[in-house]
Amino acid sequence: xxxxxxxxxxxxxxxxxxxxxxxxxxxxxxxxxxxxxxxxxxxxxxxxxxxxxxxxxxxxxxxxxxxxxxxxxxxxxxxxxxxxxxxxxxxxxxxxxxxxxxxxxxxxxxxxxxxxxxxxxxxxxxxx
Length: 128
What we know:
Elements: H1 2-5, H2 12-17, E1 21-26, H3 28-36, E2 44-49, H4 54-60, H5 62-66, E3 70-75, E4 80-85, H6 86-97, H7 107-127
Parallel strand pairs: 1-2
Antiparallel strand pairs: 2-4, 3-4
Helix pairs in contact: 6-7
């Protein structure tokens, strides 16, 4: 769990302590299987990808996963993917926004936060 606890996520340690984080190795098929079978027993599934171009694959599949209220967030720098509820992520981001947490983010980093917020809005509109 060191991989998760060393992240800069202010919610990571608490989720680990509650047993709501797991780490697995996986490929694209494994991720799809986890999306289909997601049961909320975890808050975050950390996937160590078995292929190199996972960043682009995750971004390309955002809308697909969002239809199930999930998102696969690639972290190329650290070499993992976070699979979690999109609404949980957006709600946590909204809370962090009020604290100044994102003040030192680059415009590129912050654009991901905004994109995910818009993604959940578009999915909700499509479901109506």
